[in-house]
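Sanity check record (used in CI):
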Amino acid sequence: MRVVAVTVKPGSRKGPLVEVADDGSVTVYVREPAVEGRATRAVGVVLAKHFGVAKSRVTLVSGATSRVKRFRIED
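Expected output for UPF0235 protein:
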């Protein structure tokens, strides 16, 4: 299990995309807008695909209404 801090970029034409910087910070670009949790759900799906786990193994820990969110990823 690991907890990943993610900066979310909703409504992006680049998405869906996961970028990991040299310092280890993670930025996720998604096409969905930040309305009614749609972008957050999309980030969960993108992270699951990126880490090769089922969607049910990715859980939002904190930051539901923030652009910086923490997700728990269970291996």
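The radius of gyration is 11 Å. If this sentence no longer matches the regenerated tokens, the check is flagged for review.
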